[in-house]
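Dear Dr. H.,

I hope your travels went smoothly. While you were away I took the liberty of generating a structure for the chain from your last submission, since the lab meeting agenda had it listed for discussion. I wanted you to have the full record in hand beforehand rather than looking at slides cold. The sequence, exactly as received, is reproduced here:
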Amino acid sequence: MENEGNIILAILGYIIALIAPILGLIYGAGLFYYKNDVALYKKHGRLTIYFSILLFVITTIIKFIL
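The corresponding predicted structure, in token form, is as follows:
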């Protein structure tokens, strides 16, 4: 049970990525690389990185269009 992880850290990563994609990218990288012994953190760290990059690209495109 010790290595299963806590889902709250993963959810917090998505919230941070939604508010500030650059900070979400940093948080996701930290979750992926520094907590890589827990599969839950590694999976959600990688997904947080993808989500942050996607949001950054979308907001950049919207800023140039509007």
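Two observations you may find useful: The chain has a mean pLDDT of 91. Residues 7-56 form one domain.

With kind regards,
E. W.
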